Amino acid sequence: MDKIAQLGNVHMLHPPYSPNISPCDYHYFLGLRDFMVGRNTRTQADLDNHNKQWISTRPKQFWKVGIRKLADRWQQGH
């Protein structure tokens, strides 16, 4: 840790989790959950293909909104 501090990086102490913020309700997972409703996922390959399809069909704005929400969530935890 001393070497990291010498290089200009600061170690910020924070709780390992925030009990009021669940990672499962993050922007990405909510959208994926809705996309997966009614889809056949009998194999890992099915699941992987659906996930890739979902990612490739998200517009740029989806990812921008998700990043903004992530920053807001980070601020809530501190």
Automatic annotation (TrEMBL):
Single annotated GO MF: nucleic acid binding
The protein, known as: Histone-lysine N-methyltransferase SETMAR
Biological source species: Heligmosomoides polygyrus
